[in-house]
Design a protein that fits this description.
By secondary structure, this protein is an all-beta fold. Strands 1, 2, 3, 4, 5, 6, 7, 8, 9 and 10 form a 10-stranded antiparallel beta sheet that branches. The longest helix is centred in the last third of the chain and has 4 residues.
């Protein structure tokens, strides 16, 4: 085995609007473009039928978000659907199901400590278990990934109009 190259590009085209009550809502489709090539050997010790040649697959999904900012607080929620994609036919001897992207949900809060300093925190859930190739155990042909729960916190300090300092911590 020499290599495996996998690329995935996601393009979102989202439309958002702000309502008179201050809430903003956005929604839009996602287009997914995947590319794969590899010379990995399969169980019979023969090279994959893909023969290290590029193969493409296309897919899509959608994304949705809401946001509201008050005087000191701000709230945001974003959801991205599962990204359904086509199978890699040339590599179906090693990639048993489509290499889809999982759905995820993210929710966050921000608090304006001073006029120039914001404290932020958010939570993100990534549903790896729902994607067969990623969530199935290695014994069943998957990668054995489990759902991710990510906690993030940070500070944003606007020192001047042209200078902003950001720092944060993420645990997942």
């Amino acid at each position: 085995d020499r290599n495996i190259d996998y690329y995935s590009l996601r393009l979102n085209a989202v439309y958002a609007t702000r309502f008179s009550n201050g809430w903003s809502v956005g929604f839009g489709p996602t287009i997914v473009y995947n590319r794969l090539r590899t010379d990995i050997s399969i169980a019979t010790l023969a090279q994959t039928e893909g023969r290290n040649e590029w193969e493409e697959s296309w897919g899509g999904g959608f994304t949705f978000g809401i946001y509201k900012k008050w005087e000191r607080w701000a709230f945001g929620l974003g959801y991205t659907s599962r990204q359904w994609v086509q199978r890699f036919n040339r590599y179906d001897d090693i990639v048993l199901t489509p290499l889809e992207h999982p759905q995820f949900l993210q929710v966050g809060l921000a608090y304006k400590v001073t006029e120039s300093l914001d404290f932020l925190m958010d939570y993100k859930w990534i549903d790896w278990n729902s994607v067969q190739q990623l969530g199935k155990s290695a014994a069943k042909g998957g990668f054995g990934w489990r759902d991710s729960h990510v906690l993030k916190t940070g500070l944003v300090w606007e020192i001047t109009k042209n200078t902003t300092f950001r720092c944060g911590y993420s645990y997942g």
